[in-house]
Amino acid sequence: MLSVGCLVLESLLQTEGGSALSYTRLSPTPRPLSLQLSTPRSLIAYHTTSKLLTQTTTTPAPSPLPQIYTPPSTGLLSLLPPSWVPYAELIRLDKPAGTYYLYLPCLFSTLLAAPLSHSPPSTVLTYSLLFLSGAIIMRGAGCTINDLWDRNLDPHVTRTRLRPIARRAITPLNALLFTGAQLLTGLAILLQFPTSCFYYATPSLLLVTLYPLAKRVTYYPQFVLGLTFSWGAILGFPALGVDLLSNTAALTAAGLLYGSNVAWTVLYDMIYAHQDIKDDAKAGIKSIALKHDKETKQVLTGLAVVQVALLAGAGVATGAGPAFFIGGCGGAAATLGFMIKRVNLKSVKDCWWWFVNGCWITGGAISLGLGADYLVRYYSEDEKAVEKEEQ
Protein backbone atom coordinates (compact mmCIF):
# COMPACT_ATOMS: atom_id res chain seq x y z
CA MET A 1 0.00 0.00 0.00
CA LEU A 2 2.79 2.42 0.89
CA SER A 3 4.75 1.54 -2.25
CA VAL A 4 1.77 2.38 -4.43
CA GLY A 5 1.39 5.73 -2.67
CA CYS A 6 5.06 6.51 -3.17
CA LEU A 7 4.85 5.68 -6.88
CA VAL A 8 1.94 8.06 -7.25
CA LEU A 9 3.81 10.82 -5.46
CA GLU A 10 6.93 10.14 -7.49
CA SER A 11 4.93 10.61 -10.66
CA LEU A 12 3.92 14.04 -9.37
CA LEU A 13 7.54 15.06 -9.11
CA GLN A 14 8.37 13.79 -12.58
CA THR A 15 5.44 15.46 -14.33
CA GLU A 16 5.33 19.21 -14.86
CA GLY A 17 1.53 19.28 -14.98
CA GLY A 18 1.04 17.24 -11.80
CA SER A 19 -2.11 19.04 -10.78
CA ALA A 20 -5.48 17.64 -11.79
CA LEU A 21 -6.29 21.21 -12.76
CA SER A 22 -4.95 22.76 -15.96
CA TYR A 23 -3.64 26.32 -15.71
CA THR A 24 -1.91 29.06 -17.69
CA ARG A 25 1.47 30.29 -16.54
CA LEU A 26 1.44 33.94 -15.64
CA SER A 27 4.80 34.61 -17.24
CA PRO A 28 7.41 32.68 -19.25
CA THR A 29 9.83 32.66 -16.36
CA PRO A 30 9.24 32.51 -12.65
CA ARG A 31 9.22 35.91 -10.96
CA PRO A 32 11.15 36.53 -7.73
CA LEU A 33 9.02 35.93 -4.71
CA SER A 34 9.57 39.49 -3.51
CA LEU A 35 7.89 41.07 -6.56
CA GLN A 36 4.20 41.94 -6.97
CA LEU A 37 2.61 40.07 -9.87
CA SER A 38 1.75 42.54 -12.65
CA THR A 39 -0.45 40.19 -14.60
CA PRO A 40 -4.23 40.62 -14.32
CA ARG A 41 -4.59 36.99 -13.23
CA SER A 42 -5.00 36.35 -9.54
CA LEU A 43 -6.00 33.35 -7.58
CA ILE A 44 -8.75 32.72 -5.55
CA ALA A 45 -10.47 30.06 -3.77
CA TYR A 46 -8.64 27.89 -1.38
CA HIS A 47 -10.16 25.01 0.58
CA THR A 48 -8.52 23.44 3.65
CA THR A 49 -7.66 20.36 1.63
CA SER A 50 -6.60 21.89 -1.68
CA LYS A 51 -9.00 24.11 -3.52
CA LEU A 52 -6.75 26.19 -5.73
CA LEU A 53 -7.92 27.78 -8.94
CA THR A 54 -7.34 30.97 -10.94
CA GLN A 55 -9.71 33.63 -12.06
CA THR A 56 -9.42 36.53 -14.48
CA THR A 57 -9.96 40.04 -13.17
CA THR A 58 -9.96 43.31 -15.00
CA THR A 59 -7.39 44.94 -12.72
CA PRO A 60 -4.83 43.40 -10.40
CA ALA A 61 -6.05 43.45 -6.81
CA PRO A 62 -3.59 44.58 -4.15
CA SER A 63 -2.26 41.68 -2.13
CA PRO A 64 -3.26 41.58 1.56
CA LEU A 65 -0.29 39.32 2.32
CA PRO A 66 3.40 40.25 2.51
CA GLN A 67 5.37 39.57 -0.65
CA ILE A 68 8.52 38.68 1.27
CA TYR A 69 8.43 35.76 3.69
CA THR A 70 8.81 36.68 7.35
CA PRO A 71 9.50 33.89 9.86
CA PRO A 72 6.82 33.59 12.59
CA SER A 73 7.62 35.70 15.64
CA THR A 74 4.68 34.59 17.80
CA GLY A 75 2.79 31.39 18.47
CA LEU A 76 3.86 27.75 18.43
CA LEU A 77 6.01 27.99 15.29
CA SER A 78 8.15 30.76 16.79
CA LEU A 79 9.32 28.31 19.47
CA LEU A 80 10.68 25.77 16.98
CA PRO A 81 14.22 25.66 15.57
CA PRO A 82 14.35 27.67 12.30
CA SER A 83 15.08 24.54 10.24
CA TRP A 84 11.87 22.92 11.52
CA VAL A 85 9.56 25.83 10.76
CA PRO A 86 9.02 25.10 7.02
CA TYR A 87 7.98 21.53 7.78
CA ALA A 88 5.67 22.68 10.61
CA GLU A 89 4.08 25.13 8.16
CA LEU A 90 3.79 22.38 5.57
CA ILE A 91 1.67 20.20 7.88
CA ARG A 92 -0.34 23.26 9.10
CA LEU A 93 0.76 22.67 12.68
CA ASP A 94 -0.41 26.18 13.59
CA LYS A 95 -3.88 25.56 12.07
CA PRO A 96 -5.13 22.42 13.85
CA ALA A 97 -8.89 22.67 13.13
CA GLY A 98 -8.59 20.05 10.36
CA THR A 99 -6.92 17.66 12.78
CA TYR A 100 -9.71 18.03 15.33
CA TYR A 101 -12.41 17.38 12.74
CA LEU A 102 -10.54 14.26 11.62
CA TYR A 103 -10.08 13.06 15.20
CA LEU A 104 -13.56 13.59 16.67
CA PRO A 105 -15.32 10.78 14.74
CA CYS A 106 -12.65 8.41 16.08
CA LEU A 107 -13.34 9.60 19.61
CA PHE A 108 -17.11 9.30 19.15
CA SER A 109 -16.88 5.70 17.96
CA THR A 110 -14.44 4.75 20.73
CA LEU A 111 -16.76 6.10 23.43
CA LEU A 112 -19.82 4.52 21.78
CA ALA A 113 -18.11 1.13 21.49
CA ALA A 114 -16.69 1.16 25.02
CA PRO A 115 -19.85 -0.03 26.81
CA LEU A 116 -20.26 -2.85 24.29
CA SER A 117 -16.73 -4.08 24.87
CA HIS A 118 -16.78 -3.48 28.65
CA SER A 119 -13.39 -1.77 28.24
CA PRO A 120 -11.92 -0.05 31.32
CA PRO A 121 -11.31 3.74 31.19
CA SER A 122 -7.55 3.22 30.90
CA THR A 123 -8.00 1.26 27.65
CA VAL A 124 -10.44 3.80 26.24
CA LEU A 125 -8.03 6.64 27.06
CA THR A 126 -5.08 4.81 25.49
CA TYR A 127 -6.83 4.22 22.18
CA SER A 128 -8.27 7.75 22.19
CA LEU A 129 -4.73 9.16 22.44
CA LEU A 130 -3.52 6.81 19.71
CA PHE A 131 -6.32 8.05 17.45
CA LEU A 132 -5.31 11.64 18.20
CA SER A 133 -1.68 11.01 17.28
CA GLY A 134 -2.79 9.24 14.09
CA ALA A 135 -5.05 12.18 13.15
CA ILE A 136 -2.17 14.63 13.60
CA ILE A 137 0.17 12.57 11.43
CA MET A 138 -2.27 11.70 8.65
CA ARG A 139 -3.71 15.21 8.40
CA GLY A 140 -0.15 16.49 8.05
CA ALA A 141 0.57 13.93 5.34
CA GLY A 142 -2.56 15.04 3.49
CA CYS A 143 -1.45 18.67 3.58
CA THR A 144 1.99 17.72 2.26
CA ILE A 145 0.49 15.73 -0.61
CA ASN A 146 -1.82 18.65 -1.35
CA ASP A 147 1.11 21.07 -1.68
CA LEU A 148 2.98 18.62 -3.89
CA TRP A 149 -0.03 18.44 -6.22
CA ASP A 150 -0.25 22.23 -6.37
CA ARG A 151 3.45 23.08 -6.42
CA ASN A 152 3.17 24.57 -9.93
CA LEU A 153 0.16 26.71 -8.99
CA ASP A 154 1.10 28.01 -5.56
CA PRO A 155 4.04 30.26 -6.65
CA HIS A 156 1.66 32.23 -8.90
CA VAL A 157 -1.05 32.64 -6.27
CA THR A 158 -1.03 35.50 -3.77
CA ARG A 159 -2.59 33.52 -0.96
CA THR A 160 -0.34 30.48 -1.28
CA ARG A 161 2.91 31.74 -2.84
CA LEU A 162 4.69 31.83 0.52
CA ARG A 163 4.00 28.21 1.39
CA PRO A 164 7.18 26.20 2.04
CA ILE A 165 7.31 24.35 -1.29
CA ALA A 166 6.13 27.40 -3.23
CA ARG A 167 8.81 29.66 -1.78
CA ARG A 168 11.39 26.86 -2.21
CA ALA A 169 12.11 26.48 1.49
CA ILE A 170 11.44 22.76 0.93
CA THR A 171 12.26 21.00 -2.33
CA PRO A 172 9.70 18.63 -3.87
CA LEU A 173 12.10 15.74 -3.28
CA ASN A 174 12.42 16.57 0.43
CA ALA A 175 8.65 16.97 0.65
CA LEU A 176 8.25 13.53 -0.91
CA LEU A 177 10.69 12.02 1.59
CA PHE A 178 8.86 13.82 4.39
CA THR A 179 5.57 12.38 3.15
CA GLY A 180 7.06 8.90 3.22
CA ALA A 181 8.23 9.44 6.79
CA GLN A 182 4.75 10.60 7.81
CA LEU A 183 3.09 7.59 6.16
CA LEU A 184 5.49 5.21 7.87
CA THR A 185 4.79 6.91 11.20
CA GLY A 186 1.07 6.61 10.55
CA LEU A 187 1.52 2.92 9.78
CA ALA A 188 3.47 2.45 13.01
CA ILE A 189 0.60 4.02 14.95
CA LEU A 190 -1.96 1.90 13.12
CA LEU A 191 -0.05 -1.26 14.01
CA GLN A 192 -0.59 -0.45 17.72
CA PHE A 193 -4.28 -1.22 17.20
CA PRO A 194 -5.78 -4.70 16.78
CA THR A 195 -5.09 -6.21 13.35
CA SER A 196 -8.70 -5.84 12.26
CA CYS A 197 -8.33 -2.05 12.38
CA PHE A 198 -5.83 -2.25 9.52
CA TYR A 199 -8.40 -3.85 7.25
CA TYR A 200 -11.15 -1.43 8.23
CA ALA A 201 -8.87 1.61 7.73
CA THR A 202 -7.47 0.68 4.31
CA PRO A 203 -10.59 1.46 2.19
CA SER A 204 -10.47 5.09 3.34
CA LEU A 205 -7.41 5.60 1.11
CA LEU A 206 -9.68 5.42 -1.93
CA LEU A 207 -11.82 8.25 -0.57
CA VAL A 208 -8.72 10.34 0.11
CA THR A 209 -7.82 10.15 -3.59
CA LEU A 210 -11.37 10.87 -4.78
CA TYR A 211 -11.92 14.13 -2.90
CA PRO A 212 -9.53 16.36 -4.95
CA LEU A 213 -11.32 15.20 -8.11
CA ALA A 214 -14.83 15.50 -6.67
CA LYS A 215 -14.49 19.19 -5.90
CA ARG A 216 -13.72 19.83 -9.55
CA VAL A 217 -16.71 18.04 -11.08
CA THR A 218 -19.62 18.27 -8.63
CA TYR A 219 -21.44 20.87 -6.55
CA TYR A 220 -21.29 18.47 -3.62
CA PRO A 221 -17.61 17.76 -2.92
CA GLN A 222 -18.41 18.25 0.75
CA PHE A 223 -20.25 14.92 0.65
CA VAL A 224 -17.09 13.13 -0.49
CA LEU A 225 -15.14 15.03 2.16
CA GLY A 226 -17.68 13.80 4.71
CA LEU A 227 -17.24 10.20 3.63
CA THR A 228 -13.49 10.64 4.06
CA PHE A 229 -13.30 12.58 7.34
CA SER A 230 -15.98 10.46 9.01
CA TRP A 231 -14.23 7.11 8.50
CA GLY A 232 -13.01 7.17 12.08
CA ALA A 233 -16.64 6.71 13.20
CA ILE A 234 -16.18 3.06 12.26
CA LEU A 235 -12.70 2.43 13.64
CA GLY A 236 -13.41 2.75 17.36
CA PHE A 237 -15.36 -0.52 17.35
CA PRO A 238 -12.60 -2.83 16.03
CA ALA A 239 -10.08 -0.88 18.11
CA LEU A 240 -11.86 -2.04 21.28
CA GLY A 241 -12.33 -5.56 19.99
CA VAL A 242 -15.97 -5.30 18.88
CA ASP A 243 -16.49 -7.45 15.78
CA LEU A 244 -18.79 -5.48 13.48
CA LEU A 245 -19.46 -8.43 11.18
CA SER A 246 -20.84 -10.63 13.95
CA ASN A 247 -22.45 -7.99 16.15
CA THR A 248 -25.58 -6.59 14.51
CA ALA A 249 -26.13 -3.89 17.14
CA ALA A 250 -22.56 -2.64 16.79
CA LEU A 251 -22.71 -2.68 12.98
CA THR A 252 -25.97 -0.71 13.04
CA ALA A 253 -24.55 1.79 15.51
CA ALA A 254 -21.35 2.22 13.48
CA GLY A 255 -23.32 2.82 10.29
CA LEU A 256 -25.63 5.37 11.92
CA LEU A 257 -22.73 7.16 13.62
CA TYR A 258 -20.86 7.28 10.31
CA GLY A 259 -23.88 8.81 8.57
CA SER A 260 -24.28 11.32 11.41
CA ASN A 261 -20.69 12.46 10.99
CA VAL A 262 -21.05 12.73 7.21
CA ALA A 263 -24.00 15.10 7.74
CA TRP A 264 -21.96 17.10 10.27
CA THR A 265 -19.01 17.39 7.88
CA VAL A 266 -21.21 18.67 5.06
CA LEU A 267 -22.77 21.14 7.51
CA TYR A 268 -19.58 22.72 8.83
CA ASP A 269 -17.86 22.63 5.46
CA MET A 270 -20.84 24.38 3.85
CA ILE A 271 -20.30 27.23 6.31
CA TYR A 272 -16.60 27.17 5.48
CA ALA A 273 -17.33 27.30 1.74
CA HIS A 274 -19.23 30.57 2.16
CA GLN A 275 -15.90 32.30 2.72
CA ASP A 276 -15.09 31.91 -0.98
CA ILE A 277 -18.55 31.98 -2.50
CA LYS A 278 -18.03 35.19 -4.53
CA ASP A 279 -14.68 34.04 -5.86
CA ASP A 280 -16.07 30.58 -6.61
CA ALA A 281 -18.83 32.11 -8.72
CA LYS A 282 -16.34 34.16 -10.75
CA ALA A 283 -13.91 31.27 -11.16
CA GLY A 284 -16.55 28.67 -12.02
CA ILE A 285 -15.82 26.54 -8.97
CA LYS A 286 -18.55 24.16 -7.84
CA SER A 287 -19.57 24.07 -4.18
CA ILE A 288 -22.65 23.30 -2.14
CA ALA A 289 -22.61 26.87 -0.79
CA LEU A 290 -22.85 28.25 -4.31
CA LYS A 291 -25.51 25.76 -5.37
CA HIS A 292 -27.77 26.53 -2.39
CA ASP A 293 -26.76 30.10 -1.57
CA LYS A 294 -30.33 31.41 -1.22
CA GLU A 295 -31.50 28.58 1.03
CA THR A 296 -28.29 27.85 2.92
CA LYS A 297 -29.75 28.09 6.43
CA GLN A 298 -32.61 25.76 5.49
CA VAL A 299 -30.09 23.23 4.15
CA LEU A 300 -27.96 23.61 7.30
CA THR A 301 -31.05 23.03 9.45
CA GLY A 302 -31.91 19.89 7.50
CA LEU A 303 -28.37 18.58 7.89
CA ALA A 304 -28.47 19.27 11.64
CA VAL A 305 -31.73 17.33 11.98
CA VAL A 306 -30.24 14.40 10.07
CA GLN A 307 -27.08 14.48 12.16
CA VAL A 308 -28.87 14.46 15.51
CA ALA A 309 -31.43 11.84 14.38
CA LEU A 310 -28.73 9.43 13.20
CA LEU A 311 -26.71 10.03 16.36
CA ALA A 312 -29.78 9.19 18.45
CA GLY A 313 -30.30 6.05 16.37
CA ALA A 314 -26.74 4.96 17.12
CA GLY A 315 -27.47 5.39 20.82
CA VAL A 316 -30.64 3.31 20.60
CA ALA A 317 -28.72 0.54 18.82
CA THR A 318 -26.17 0.35 21.63
CA GLY A 319 -28.66 0.67 24.49
CA ALA A 320 -27.41 4.08 25.56
CA GLY A 321 -28.86 5.80 28.62
CA PRO A 322 -30.21 9.28 29.45
CA ALA A 323 -26.73 10.86 29.63
CA PHE A 324 -26.21 10.06 25.95
CA PHE A 325 -29.53 11.42 24.73
CA ILE A 326 -29.62 14.49 26.97
CA GLY A 327 -25.93 15.39 26.84
CA GLY A 328 -24.87 14.12 23.42
CA CYS A 329 -27.98 14.45 21.26
CA GLY A 330 -29.49 17.36 23.17
CA GLY A 331 -26.16 19.16 23.29
CA ALA A 332 -25.63 18.66 19.56
CA ALA A 333 -29.12 19.95 18.74
CA ALA A 334 -28.72 23.03 20.96
CA THR A 335 -25.25 23.99 19.74
CA LEU A 336 -26.04 23.40 16.08
CA GLY A 337 -29.25 25.39 16.33
CA PHE A 338 -27.42 28.28 18.00
CA MET A 339 -24.65 28.24 15.38
CA ILE A 340 -27.04 28.14 12.42
CA LYS A 341 -29.03 31.04 13.83
CA ARG A 342 -26.02 33.21 14.68
CA VAL A 343 -23.58 32.62 11.83
CA ASN A 344 -23.36 35.50 9.37
CA LEU A 345 -22.85 33.77 6.03
CA LYS A 346 -21.93 37.08 4.38
CA SER A 347 -18.98 37.57 6.71
CA VAL A 348 -15.77 35.70 5.93
CA LYS A 349 -14.49 36.31 9.44
CA ASP A 350 -17.68 34.99 11.05
CA CYS A 351 -17.78 31.87 8.86
CA TRP A 352 -14.16 31.14 9.77
CA TRP A 353 -14.85 31.62 13.50
CA TRP A 354 -17.74 29.17 13.51
CA PHE A 355 -15.79 26.66 11.41
CA VAL A 356 -12.82 26.71 13.80
CA ASN A 357 -14.82 26.73 17.03
CA GLY A 358 -17.67 24.48 15.92
CA CYS A 359 -15.51 21.43 16.47
CA TRP A 360 -15.22 22.28 20.15
CA ILE A 361 -18.77 23.52 20.65
CA THR A 362 -20.73 20.73 18.94
CA GLY A 363 -18.00 18.08 19.01
CA GLY A 364 -17.39 18.78 22.69
CA ALA A 365 -21.08 18.41 23.56
CA ILE A 366 -21.30 15.06 21.77
CA SER A 367 -18.08 13.82 23.37
CA LEU A 368 -19.24 14.78 26.86
CA GLY A 369 -22.58 13.02 26.34
CA LEU A 370 -20.91 9.88 25.03
CA GLY A 371 -18.26 9.93 27.76
CA ALA A 372 -20.79 10.44 30.56
CA ASP A 373 -22.98 7.62 29.27
CA TYR A 374 -19.99 5.27 29.07
CA LEU A 375 -18.81 6.05 32.62
CA VAL A 376 -22.30 5.71 34.10
CA ARG A 377 -22.82 2.35 32.42
CA TYR A 378 -19.32 1.11 33.21
CA TYR A 379 -19.47 1.85 36.95
CA SER A 380 -23.09 0.70 37.32
CA GLU A 381 -22.14 -2.65 35.78
CA ASP A 382 -19.14 -2.76 38.12
CA GLU A 383 -21.38 -2.23 41.13
CA LYS A 384 -23.77 -4.94 39.94
CA ALA A 385 -20.86 -7.35 39.59
CA VAL A 386 -19.73 -6.61 43.13
CA GLU A 387 -23.24 -7.10 44.51
CA LYS A 388 -23.53 -10.40 42.67
CA GLU A 389 -20.27 -11.64 44.16
CA GLU A 390 -21.38 -10.68 47.66
CA GLN A 391 -24.57 -12.69 47.25
TrEMBL record:
Pfam short name (any one): UbiA
Keyword entries, A-Z: Isoprene biosynthesis, Membrane, Mitochondrion, Mitochondrion inner membrane, Transferase, Transmembrane, Transmembrane helix, Ubiquinone biosynthesis
Segments passing through the bilayer: 197-214, 223-242, 248-268, 299-317, 323-340, 352-372
Pathway(s) it belongs to: Secondary metabolite biosynthesis; terpenoid biosynthesis; Cofactor biosynthesis; ubiquinone biosynthesis
EC number: 2.5.1.39
Function noted in UniProt: Catalyzes the prenylation of para-hydroxybenzoate (PHB) with an all-trans polyprenyl group. Mediates the second step in the final reaction sequence of coenzyme Q (CoQ) biosynthesis, which is the condensation of the polyisoprenoid side chain with PHB, generating the first membrane-bound Q intermediate.
Name of the protein in its database record: 4-hydroxybenzoate polyprenyltransferase, mitochondrial
High-level lineage: Eukaryota, Fungi, Dikarya, Ascomycota, Pezizomycotina
